[in-house]
Amino acid sequence: MKPLRILALAHPDLIPPDNIEGLSESETYVWKTEYDVSTTLRASGHEVRMLGVQTELAPIRDAVEDWKPDIVFNMLEEFHGESLYAQNVVALLELLRVPYTGCNPRGMMLARGKDLSKKLLKYHRVPAPAFAVFPMGKKARRPGRLKFPLIVKSLWEDASLGIAQASIVDTDEKLAERVAFIHKRLNTPAIAEQYIEGREIYVGVLGNDRLQVLPVWELSFSNLAEGSHAIATEKVKHDPIYQEKRGILQGPAQDLPPSVVTKIRTLAKRISHTLELDGYCRIDFRLSKDNVPYFIEANPNPEIAASQEYAQAALHAGTSYADLLNKIVMLGLKRAGVEL
Ligand SMILES: Nc1ncnc2c1ncn2[C@@H]1O[C@H](COP(=O)(O)OP(=O)(O)O)[C@@H](O)[C@H]1O
Ligand SMILES: [Mg+2]
Question: Residue 280: which H helix or E strand, with range?
Fold first, then answer.
């Protein structure tokens, strides 16, 4: 690919330092995606300018108009601290008519609500846990059809914010407590879903119209504390020391019957199409004991540090990290109709 001018958008706190020598894994962890993406694209010959944005739009507009990047590499997950606004920044990029990587704003909106995505997917016969939504300021009253155990989450936050062992509840009292906790701590409505005991499965999808499905990936828990549930809590996702202690490993899902692999791959494509996701996304499932893949959520623009699930699955499929990033850039250019 010819060298491009790439404007990389990120949260201002996540602009990596130039030199990371001597920093521990815990220190580099938060901005690992931003670091890996910018350094790898530079090593591929592109000119990369990092731009931290969070409360002002003018810097985006100025950089696009003055520097004229070929494409914006979008790593922004929130604006004004609101994850719901991430899609609006992408909408702005569309209005500025600058090509960008990752998902379009409509897909981001459809995937965001953990209720809306499941409602849409039901029409397309994608298995998903039963659920109920508890709006802010309302007490949690469980519909009779919803049976314990349940897992209580924020309706739209991600990164496992508010997800801990206490999220799994088996009484109405605990349900009410956890719903109140989500309302108060995260300031969002809560969703309670049927808890699917089983395996944690991630599937990377790459493409705009023609989709490439990456190898079926699994997060496994080899050394859980007695009585703990195998779920991706905040600590499981973001605390390298805890990961080591609890034997949390990611890798290709082992010993799945071929028919189940086929089913998961077909569902991942159907989900991406239904939710209008493009660029790159990761679809998360829980695979029940009887091998039914339940849709949990779709993540447009998932984290793509070289060591994380998405890039590792791509590598397993024979796509190097640099090739993956260049492909993501190419998909953004293609969507915008840029001749390659
Ligand atoms: N219905 C469910 N059944 C079983 N585990 C679940 C369910 N919903 C969420 N989890 C667990 O909680 C984790 C985080 O939930 P998720 O909806 O993906 O939120 P986030 O957007 O914060 O990642 C999942 O990766 C999974 O381990
Ligand atoms: Mg998730």
Answer: strand 279-288
Q: Give counts: helices (H), strands (E), the chain.
A: 12, 13
pLDDT tens digits along 220-278: 998 888 889 999 998 888 888 888 888 999 999 999 999 999 999 999 999 999 999 99
Pairing type for strands 217-221 and 248-252 reads antiparallel
Q: Where are the alpha helices (DSSP H) in 248-336?
A: 258-274, 309-316, 321-335
Query: Is omega for the bond preceding 149 within 30 degrees of 0, making it cis?
Result: yes
Average pLDDT rounded to a whole number, residues 7-13: 97
Q: 283: Cβ–Cβ under 8 A, 6 or more apart, which residues?
A: 202, 203, 205, 267, 268, 271, 272, 295, 297, 298, 299
Domains and CATH numbers, the chain: 5-102 (3.40.50), 110-126+198-300 (3.30.470.20), 131-194 (3.30.1490)
Task: Return phi, psi of residue 116, to 5°.
Answer: -60, -45
Distance in angstroms (rounded) separating the CA atoms of residues 124 and 270: 8
User: Can you give the pTM of this predicted structure?
Assistant: 0.95
Q: Which residues lie across from 48 on neighbouring strands? A: 6
Which of 151, 235, 310 for a ligand 1 pocket mutation test, highest count of atoms within 8 Å of Cβ? 151
Q: How far is CA 118 from CA 57, 75, 128, 249, 288, in A?
A: 32, 25, 6, 28, 17
Q: Is the CB of 158 under 6 A from ligand 1?
A: yes
**Residue 270 near residue 128, CB atoms below 8 Å:** no
* Residue with CA at minimum distance from ligand 1 atom 11: 231
- 266's CB contacts (< 8 A; 6+ apart) are none
Per-residue pLDDT at 137: 87
Q: Which H or E run includes 199?
A: strand 198-207
Nearest CA, atom 15, ligand 1:
160
Nearest protein CA to atom 27 of ligand 1, as residue:
231
The response to whether residue 216 sits with its C-beta less than 6 Å from ligand 1 reads no
Per-residue model confidence (pLDDT) at position 141: 92
Helix axes 105-112, 86-95, angle to 10 degrees: 160
* Ligand 1 lined by 182 (C-beta under 6 Å): no
